[in-house]
């Protein structure tokens, strides 16, 4: 599956797309494949602060739970309510099943993230281990 | 099935719905004797606190209850039916004399608050068991209060904290090997400590150099399982204990694997300061579908003042009693004195064995595990060549080439009449098969197990789909755990 | 040894197959300096008949056949015989935790039924598959409230079982738990004015017990209002499960911590018992302990599995909701069968008998001594205040092979010569009358002694 070129990516397998001062984020297809059937997502409430590199929630499959790491800092402006009743949307299409939208504190933080091409290379290396 | 199985065959078994589906007003399984005091009117006595309805609580007859639970029981695997090769669970025979003695009226009907004068029997049971366990572990003192292993771990870490605090600093970290059982880090967190992972070396033992590097004045203790979850005895235990003690740290031992040690070596002799035991593992008390257990904690003398309250003492007149004036105690970890019913059972087990029986038991446990290791080491990948004791860990590396993983192999093992081994643990072995037969398995049962495991390995090569879609012979096929977690249904409702 | 299924020739054959000369080879990994070369100093191996005799002696030393007025968190109720008949089946007794669902449907379905009945009885939406006991379930309930609210404080009623409060103190001590205790009124219930003062925006939950330690039923609705007004949760501990047959459950509670020992679990000198946590559906992911859920298999057939395991220690490890692993499954099965036997009608009748016995005892004892907390409704326990020290009275009652009420000076010294008495359906009228007689005698002789002193003081000076 191609990784959208207008997204930026992290080594923790999150994607982020900035439009003006607001960024949308979620987890990548590689992440949802490794997790298996997703059963629950724990997300922050609107107004909460997230910090780049720190956890902002968690995602659960039947047998495992993983932390979600913020690709950038900001304040949560919107949360995808669909995921609380239908977390399987992430398995179906991880790149459109967004999790939260944040008002970016410093849009410059995104420049150090991976491009789609770099992320694809990174994932290929991970998979070969 | 592609192979003939000698251990298990299909058999007609009964279906049974939920008890609520059998309920009907007017059916009853109870009868109370007539009151010998005047009747009362609850509405008068309780007023608005009176309960108006008991909703959908069932109404059924006695025969229906007997059939209900008897049918349900026939759907379960159990030790009484065959081997459970579950690693670190020590699924040994649950002797029936244990059940009889725990039901003796004077012990079974004793109220925990009844006067000590008429509790000397119970107190003597507690004392005798305590003395035996202290001798078995080589420690100095013990508490029987914790209700299970994890509860014992918490108690043990509270003791560590209290001890360190009494030396001026509770410290901040607990070191835990990456091969540890999940209760270890969970407990450390509950006890208010940060967890730091300790690497294992290529031989599957604690990396002593790493321990030396990580040991600092912030480390309160190391939580060690010995033998570890790979079944490997920490041969450098002396060094490990010294490194800890030299910087004021304590050595905590998770006693889950005591079945490899009883009567052959004592943790107190090799440097352990505090440890818990699992009476429902090593000491034969029954698992009962998930409990009750009992997790006594044994300590060296310097930790004795901190033990949970109350402690058993012998009074000047020779009678036994409980001492509550314990100013340095960590407090209580539960109401009353512990799972006394399990004390009775564990003590009966110890008395039935004696010193020679216990030693022979440990030897047979280690013999059985090594026998399995020898016979399965070609069919399954053995990640560590280090000698193992009462359990052994293989991996699914060879079978993974066909896309078959440890969980699939385990499910196929069910068709062969066995309960699966422990899958996917310890975490340091990807695709682990963790096998502990215990001493309760005969050579015949072990040979049947080897035969089954070898047959499955062949099936993986010849017909992997058969294994991937197992089990085939059970009442229910693989259950949808995803749906159960996504939209949990945790109770019956009339409209279901 | 008769539990070991090996003959010497089996062992020989196995050692040969392994390539070991003797069993000592297999213990070589243990450093020689630590290997035991002596027998453990424990009693010699006993025959089964000797084991029975040893424990029968202990049973006799333990005073068998006494009537008892003890309660205080452990209750003497009749245990129907089919409970032991069923739980003694090897497939229940010797089964493991139901992680492999396909071969554990018996255990899993019975837990599902257990969870359902606990919900019905407590008025809550979800219940777990058991905790160690009421005291640890109560502690875990408070910790759960802390996680959910993100607050650190707990306000505890002093009328909660003293040992439950001790356990909470032990767990909370190093976890930065800010605990405040609120007294009870002269009516034996939590003081609502004091409660109002103690609850703040830092309070995670208010913790009460109902019926409380004294047997008195708390005004749950009023307490809930105060707690919720401040954004705090209400946790209610229930130690006497039989009360749920006739007493309205605390439906305004957010979390209920239940001790199920009354439901067919032997007193057994304090354990094993069976705790449960029941709560609202919205909090299910913060619940500790195992949960069984309904699902289907590949053929659409109904089945049951352990679910929401990601809350638990074996997955979350240090982030788990609790460190609990082994619980009390077999004991929960006893409670399950008990609830099934008595059911909708029997549980109420059983509870009514408890009310009747207690009312009669209150009436009889009240003729000579002082029954406290008369203003509020109670279930099957009450506090008695006597002129004489309770231990002395109990010493004489013991002579009739009756164990009297629990002296309270250790837990509530301010109540003076007080003791806690419990009358379940097992207490006979004759035992109540005998105890009432001893108490009456005690009161009379104390008062007579006082009158004598009084009379001596009053004696006019004799004229010389």
Task: Describe this structure as you would to a colleague.
- Chain A is α+β, with helices and mostly antiparallel strands.
- Helices cover 22% and strands 34% of the residues of chain A.
- Chain B is α/β, with parallel strands linked by helices.
- Chain B has a seven-stranded mixed β-sheet, with helices on both faces.
- In chain B, strand 11 and strand 12 form a beta hairpin.
- In chain B, helix 6 packs across helix 7.
- Chain B is globular.
- Chain B starts with 41 loop residues before the first helix and ends in a 10-residue tail after the last helix.
- The mean pLDDT of chain B is 95.
- Chain C is an alpha/beta fold and 464 residues long.
- Chain C has two domains: 259 residues, 3-Layer(aba) Sandwich (Aspartate Aminotransferase, domain 2), CATH 3.40.640.10; 108 residues, Aspartate Aminotransferase, domain 1.
- Chain C contains 14 helices and 15 strands.
- In chain C, the strands form four sheets. In chain C, strands 2-8-7-6-5-3-4 form a seven-stranded mixed β-sheet, with helices on both faces. Chain C has a four-stranded antiparallel β-sheet with strand order 11-12-15-14, with helices on one face.
- The longest helix of chain C is centred in the last third of the chain and has 38 residues.
- The relative contact order of chain C is 0.13.
- The model of chain C has no long low-confidence stretch (mean pLDDT 94).
- Classes of the chains: A alpha+beta (129), B alpha/beta (496), C alpha/beta (464).
CATH architecture of the domain at 97-350 in chain B: 3-Layer(aba) Sandwich
What is the CATH topology of the domain at 97-350 in chain B? Answer: Aspartate Aminotransferase, domain 2
Mean pLDDT of chain B: 95
The biggest sheet of chain B amounts to: 7 strands, mixed
Unreliable stretches of chain B, pLDDT < 50, 5 or more residues?
none
CATH class of the domain at 97-350 in chain B: Alpha Beta
Distance between the termini of chain C: 91 Å
CATH architecture of the largest domain in chain C: 3-Layer(aba) Sandwich
Mean pLDDT of chain C: 94
Which superfamily, in CATH terms, is the homologous superfamily of the domain at 97-350 in chain B?
Type I PLP-dependent aspartate aminotransferase-like (Major domain)
Beta fraction of chain B: 5-15%
Q: From the 3D structure, determine the CATH topology of the largest domain in chain C.
A: Aspartate Aminotransferase, domain 2
CATH homologous superfamily caption of the largest domain in chain C: Type I PLP-dependent aspartate aminotransferase-like (Major domain)
